[in-house]
Amino acid sequence: MQQPQEPGEPSSEPLILVVDDEVTIRKMLGRALDPLGYRVISVSSSLHAIEALWDLPELDCIVTDQRMAGPQGLDLLDYAAREKPWVGRVLFSGYLTTDLIAGSVRHHSLVAKTAPLHTLVVAIDHEIKLRARVATPRTA
Predict the structure, then answer these.
(1) How many domains does the chain have?
(2) How many CB atoms lie within 10 A of CB 72?
(3) What gap in Å lies between CA 80 and CA 82, rounded to an integer?
(4) 70-92, pLDDT tens digit by residue?
(5) Residues 6+ apart with CB under 8 A from 120
(6) Residue 46's domain is classified under what CATH number?
(7) Where in the sequence is the domain holding 102, given as residue range(s)?
(8) CA separation (Å) from 41 to 17, 30, 38, 51, 112?
(9) pLDDT digits (tens, 9 = 90+) for 75-134
(10) d(CA 102, CA 25)
């Protein structure tokens, strides 16, 4: 059970933004990650995620699907890498192609939707630790 948090007090629980056009995936990830100590906010598109990226200065990591209407997951992660490089980035996709894998490995973690939950958690934690080395407006 989570301890109550004072207003304005920073949380020690990482904030994860889940981006997927499938509501069942968003709900499943929220239910799976919450008991593991993550705060989860979910949105249904990259456009909503871009808004959230600017509205959530405490955001620690984005977990996004690749194939969605509008900008694709890689487009979102590329945008996040340019604009907020301290935010972790995980592509969580059911459609892994050679081109997608090749385009992913240099900039963020890649996890297949068929992988066990533990694999996603390891990728999220890795991304948060890796990106924490980058100065943020919160720590600069």
Answers:
(1) 1
(2) 18
(3) 5
(4) 888 888 998 999 899 899 999 98
(5) 29, 63, 90, 92, 111
(6) 3.40.50.2300
(7) 15-131
(8) 5, 8, 10, 12, 20
(9) 899 899 989 989 999 998 876 666 666 665 566 788 888 999 999 999 999 999 887 776
(10) 25
